[in-house]
């Protein structure tokens, strides 16, 4: 008997260009074409999403009776478009959750009937949860942009709405005293410290740090392809991080492992770091806050936005501005004063050298 190497319900085929492709086909679910090759972490995530039906959704009885022109009809087609499929599988799960909760209430409505006032009212219904209301606005805007390109509407009615202002800067950015407090509580050589050091000294998201291991080291650098954006960054391994890795008993595949020697799950990673922060007396601090702290440190070192983006993997200056909002104001104003005085001294010196000699 020929040994099967692909996961259950996955089969391979060649497309009309002769390229190897893979699909998920399971009775009662829609077919799904994989974007990544078997054996990769991305493929594993896609396959898991198919098993849970967040991808390859279950076929509902009577689905063929969906009326054309309704949101039910539009959403089915949207899920098969690049608009929805281009983001990572993890992001798709989040987006689908927002859309499906809205669809349960408004799916039978006609796309052409949606007006700006309707969207504003739907957002208001979600108060006081402003972040959720803004997320719904984004997803509806993307859905209606797709409808516009499909020729079903003349303009996107969501664009005329206004998002709610969100007070605060999101995740708290770690301060230097908080960093010192964690380091004092969790010494070098512990898994708690290694997780902290990987987050701080790489400035990457927890989902990427969780999977970092010896295979990421190339020419004494860490090469990371970010799961969320697919941006690849190549980072020098700074001395503090190198010391932490060498002092800790790491795993074979990933640096960070549980007490049982296994790679942390996404949820387990977050929960464990939460416990370690709480133990250090830092209940308001988080893993993502260390990514912001890394960006803050670069800004305080007078690095340019382009240099910070090369490290964090961000692609726009607006993202960097959001991440570096907690820059030490006193430190930066002192630096500005130094630059101002240096410039004034230079101008006075140039003016003196250009003055005609008295004779």
UniProtKB/TrEMBL annotation:
<dbReference type="Pfam" id="PF00589">
    <property type="entry name" value="Phage_integrase"/>
</dbReference>
<protein>
    <submittedName>
        <fullName>Integrase family protein</fullName>
    </submittedName>
</protein>
<dbReference type="InterPro" id="IPR002104">
    <property type="entry name" value="Integrase_catalytic"/>
</dbReference>
<dbReference type="GO" id="GO:0003677">
    <property type="term" value="F:DNA binding"/>
</dbReference>
<dbReference type="InterPro" id="IPR011010">
    <property type="entry name" value="DNA_brk_join_enz"/>
</dbReference>
<dbReference type="GO" id="GO:0006310">
    <property type="term" value="P:DNA recombination"/>
</dbReference>
<feature type="domain" description="Tyr recombinase">
    <location>
        <begin position="161"/>
        <end position="337"/>
    </location>
</feature>
<dbReference type="InterPro" id="IPR013762">
    <property type="entry name" value="Integrase-like_cat_sf"/>
</dbReference>
<keyword id="KW-0238">DNA-binding</keyword>
<keyword id="KW-0233">DNA recombination</keyword>
<dbReference type="GO" id="GO:0015074">
    <property type="term" value="P:DNA integration"/>
</dbReference>
<dbReference type="InterPro" id="IPR010998">
    <property type="entry name" value="Integrase_recombinase_N"/>
</dbReference>
């Amino acid at each position: 008997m020929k040994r099967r190497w692909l996961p259950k319900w996955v089969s391979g085929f060649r497309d009309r260009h002769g390229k190897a492709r893979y699909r998920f086909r399971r009775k009662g679910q829609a077919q799904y074409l994989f974007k990544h090759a078997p054996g990769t972490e991305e493929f594993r995530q896609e396959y898991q999403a198919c098993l849970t039906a967040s991808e390859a959704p279950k076929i509902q009885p009577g689905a063929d009776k969906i009326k054309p022109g309704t949101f039910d009809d539009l959403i089915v087609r949207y899920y098969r478009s690049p608009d929805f499929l281009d983001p990572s599988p993890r992001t798709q799960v989040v987006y689908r959750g927002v859309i499906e909760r809205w669809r349960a209430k408004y799916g039978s409505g006609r796309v052409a009937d949606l007006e700006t006032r309707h969207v504003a009212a739907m957002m208001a219904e979600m108060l006081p949860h402003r972040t959720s209301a803004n997320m719904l606005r984004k997803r509806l805007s993307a859905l209606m942009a797709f409808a516009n390109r499909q020729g079903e509407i003349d303009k996107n009615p969501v664009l005329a709405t206004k998002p709610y202002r969100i007070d605060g800067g999101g995740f708290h950015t770690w301060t230097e005293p908080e960093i010192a407090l964690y380091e004092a509580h969790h010494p070098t050589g512990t898994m708690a410290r290694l997780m902290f050091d990987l987050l701080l000294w790489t400035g990457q998201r927890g989902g990427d740090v969780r999977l970092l291991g010896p295979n990421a080291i190339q020419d004494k650098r860490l090469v990371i392809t970010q799961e969320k954006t697919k941006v690849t960054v190549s980072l020098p391994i700074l001395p503090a991080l190198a010391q932490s890795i060498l002092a800790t008993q790491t795993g074979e595949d990933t640096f960070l492992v549980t007490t049982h020697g296994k790679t942390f799950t996404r949820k387990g990673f977050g929960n464990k770091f939460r416990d370690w922060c709480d133990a250090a007396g830092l209940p308001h601090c988080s893993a993502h806050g260390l990514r912001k702290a890394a960006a803050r440190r670069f800004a305080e070192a007078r690095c340019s936005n382009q240099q910070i983006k090369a490290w964090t993997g961000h692609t726009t200056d607006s993202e960097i501005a959001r991440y570096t909002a907690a820059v030490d104001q006193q430190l930066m104003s002192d630096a500005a004063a130094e630059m101002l005085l240096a410039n004034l001294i230079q101008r006075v010196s140039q003016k003196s050298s250009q003055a005609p000699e008295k004779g």
